[in-house]
Amino acid sequence: MTVIGTGYLGATHAAAMAELGHEVLGVDNNPAQLAALREGRTPFFEPGLEELLAKHVASGRLRFSDSYAEAADFADLHFICVGTPQRSGSYAADMSYVDSAFSAIAEASQRPALLVGKSTVPVGTAARLQELITRVSPAGDGMQLAWNPEFLREGFAVKDTLHPDRIVLGTESSETEQRLREVYARPIAEGTPVVVTDFPTAELVKTAANAFLATKISFINAMAEVCEAAGGDVTVLADAIGHDARIGRRFLNAGVGFGGGCLPKDIRAFMARAGEIGVDQAVTFLTEIDSINLRRRTGAVDAAGELLGGQVSGRRVAVLGAAFKPDSDDVRDSPALDIAAGLHVHGADVRVYDPKAMHRAALAYPALGYADSLDAAVDGAEVVLLLTEWAEFRALTPADLDGKVAGKAIFDGRNVLDPAQWREAGWTYRGVGR
Ligand SMILES: NC(=O)c1ccc[n+]([C@@H]2O[C@H](COP(=O)([O-])OP(=O)(O)OC[C@H]3O[C@@H](n4cnc5c(N)ncnc54)[C@H](O)[C@@H]3O)[C@@H](O)[C@H]2O)c1
Ligand SMILES: O=c1ccn([C@@H]2O[C@H](COP(=O)(O)OP(=O)(O)O[C@H]3O[C@H](CO)[C@@H](O)[C@H](O)[C@H]3O)[C@@H](O)[C@H]2O)c(=O)[nH]1
Which residues bind substrate (predicted)? Predict the structure, then answer.
């Protein structure tokens, strides 16, 4: 098989498919990325992925190429994992990468083949692509398409791919279903549920899952706003409502909100697509989910300003975290960097430190100040902001910072520190909704 698009999703999928016993050719059009992958190195940080990749590159079961002709010759089963970022100036997804990857592999296919979409796409895409590939391929009607959305989380990508919660197969062909069941034989044998459905439902399962997760986070962040006004503690509230199995405690961590290459752009693409198909009212609540989320970022900038006594310009601020979540170096739509940039715009002297995302952060936000260690970031800081809950930040104690900082004020943007411990040590502690 081939895996077309070897970014966060595709590189993981390719290595995991090799681990499941398949011969895999990864295809991408980014030469630097291919060069790293060919040497068995991941171009980004994802726990456990480099080991898996290196193992299968060394065994020869996993190779990489930039050639669609080679891909079409190599296999008649192709997983498409290219990006669907937010289009600039619009909420809609930019489908140009998906369209060009499907066209290119279809045009290169001289024999019948199965193209399996894994990218997150607006509902209606698969039906459109089925028509496109049949039209442009020399193999014509021999080109089959299935939609198999991916639910992996960064930071847990290998585990989530090898042991998924469920496998969704959008296909109405029993032959295609059987073929994909063989691809995923191992997780299926381990008991992973398989949902076989039509194209629109398969596409919508993915969109709905991310909309639900975003809603859960913004719900608890809305409760955090209420707790702040009323003097409550949202972490206790989340524990208490989470004991109800119908609600569940997971994804109820209030903080500076969701970021990354998925939830923010996926809820916006969902709103855009719903508008196109005439059901915008069904998802207008997502506008509010997005607003609550973005309000947490401006709220953090305001909180830092208050901790600095209202004067931000020229003040030294330590920002702990740049990645959108721990155990990842992904800085796409990162709340931490957005907040750091907000303070920078107000004239703060910001020093950002992240254990893995420094390089990507500096590329995305070159104007920010960076420190190459936690100690360097907090040295002389008048306020410390914990914005991504890496293990080394969660473990911080006042003793680690005393004598280094210039002001004992901390904003715990992920509610991971013990407020009593910090207050007892003479710090001004501020969390989110507690
Ligand atoms: N990152 C995740 O955790 C995750 C999880 C589930 C689903 N998804 C979805 O998967 C898709 C990919 O996301 P990602 O995070 O891996 O993006 P990414 O930007 O990291 O990777 C996309 C890759 O596709 C390559 N590419 C673009 N056009 C190409 C073409 N025509 N031919 C070959 N390669 C091409 C790029 O060079 C890049 O390496 C998106 O639709 C995303 O929403 C992502
Ligand atoms: O209680 C919580 C849980 C998460 N987050 C934030 O939400 C964002 C997204 O986290 P997470 O969902 O764990 O990361 P992703 O890797 O973006 O994964 C999401 O997006 C992927 C791409 O579509 C899907 O495949 C996954 O199932 C879905 O969880 C991060 O900024 C987190 O800090 C919170 O603020 N509070």
Answer: 151-154, 206, 251-255, 259, 325
